[in-house]
Amino acid sequence: MTAHSNVYPTKALQDLDAAHHWHPFSDMKSLNAEGTRVITSADGVWLRDSEGKKILDGMAGLWCVQVGHGRTEIADAVHRQMVELSYYNTFFKTTHPPAVALSERLAKLAPDHINRVFYCSSGSEANDTVFRMVRTYWDKLGKPDKKVIIGRWNGYHGSTLAGASLGGMKGMHQQGDLPVPGVHHIDQPYWFGEGHDMSPQDFGIAAARKLEQAIDELGEDKVAAFIAEPIQGAGGVIIPPDSYWPEVRRILKERDILFVSDEVICGFGRMGEWFGSSYYGMEPDLMPIAKGLTSGYLPMGGVLVSDRIAEGLMLAGEDFNHGYTYSGHPACAAAALANLDIIEREGLVGRVKTDIGPYLQERWRKLAGHPLVGEARMTGLMGALELVPDKTSPYKPFRDPGNAGTICRDISFENGMVMRAVRDSMIISPPLVLTHEEADLLVKTVEKTLDDTFQILKRDGLLG
């Protein structure tokens, strides 16, 4: 195994991995029996595995590699910073230049009413921070009964104790006695899966009013905040109807409830705006961030804090007793600054809005004509295909939900492209640097994958 070789001892690595490495969200018994996929290098939108095979990274790592793989300017910036100051904490009245510079940069990119950032290492930690900030804020304002945070079923806000509780993934709640007390969930705005007996516009309003109903039932004096992703990512790229967010905005404006926009996936250009909440015209009080902040080159997250929240938390002149060893890590901050330089210099946010976004969206939506696809949707560079057993009855699910999606996902890898399965939805979120030619190849690979999947499902009697 050398630094210059793309051919690695795959079986030996798989055996060592099985013996010592516990993977996230995995059935380790079946994974170890099957053997892991070993990725050894990457460049641009391409991955290479231990067998030397090239794979198009249709998920930008894990929704995060906005600027593509192998950007040496980020590695160089991290190296320079680590030589100068590899680590120091931001506790004990201390700061360092990278944290200062990044904080100023993020304040300029954020909406005008947001001017501060609290740092952590991941989106999950960011949402744990949100949980404590929201409750502490209301305590400081003399409203200690405002504790309940409303989230959405099938929303995802991380896998830590508070993050998994705020999210609405029932499979996660079944492990660890979650959610913690004080979290309430409402229906998601998933028209294809749950609202097809109504028009999208009517369903969007009805889904938004679930929030209004919950606030009224729980009591406005008890509800602290509503947390939501602009578009639900891990839930299956759930793009709400156009009527949804304006109605949510009305509901929140009429009530004294904080709004938390989870920007971990939707932020940093993924939707053609710097932040997903800006795409929908929302004004969050708190914005958890991570992933695209560094394009995944180093782990870093944070919470963008509005002036309202900052002033409330500082009201009593007391410590906010919360923080992390790696809050504002200098090398991670250097990676983030270099990453943001690339995004701005190459105009990637605008490119998603006016160039590669519309280009891929047009081709992606045409996939709705495939006999296996019930709906093809995409906003920015976040897309989903709903696989269905019968086009004449597109909302009828497969008899064994999730099986078709798993088959399609595995075939996609074999065909040379990463496409994720959520239930029987196939989702993509490619790097923002995807070229037109690569977009064409992406769609061509998806078409072949759908054809191959269709033939297997037909052979096994799983259609109709």
Question: Approximately how much helix is present in the residues?
Answer: 40-55%
SS strand fraction: 5-15%
Overall mean pLDDT stands at: 96
**Major beta sheet, specifics?**
4 strands, parallel
| Class by alpha and beta content | alpha+beta
- The count of helical stretches stands at 18
Shape: globular
Number of strands: 14
Unreliable spans: none
- Gyration radius over CA: 22 Å
Strand order in the largest sheet:
6-5-7-8
For the termini, the CA-CA separation is: 49 Å
Secondary structure topology:
Elements: H1 10-20, H2 28-34, E1 39-43, E2 46-49, E3 54-56, H3 60-63, H4 72-84, H5 97-109, E4 114-120, H6 123-140, E5 148-152, H7 161-166, H8 170-173, E6 183-186, H9 191-194, H10 200-218, E7 223-228, H11 244-253, E8 258-261, H12 276-279, E9 286-289, E10 301-306, H13 307-313, H14 330-345, H15 348-354, H16 356-365, E11 373-379, E12 382-387, H17 403-414, E13 420-422, E14 425-428, H18 436-459
Parallel strand pairs: 5-6, 5-7, 7-8
Antiparallel strand pairs: 1-2, 2-3, 4-10, 9-10, 11-12, 12-14, 13-14
Helix pairs in contact: 1-2, 4-14, 5-14, 10-11, 15-16, 16-18, 17-18
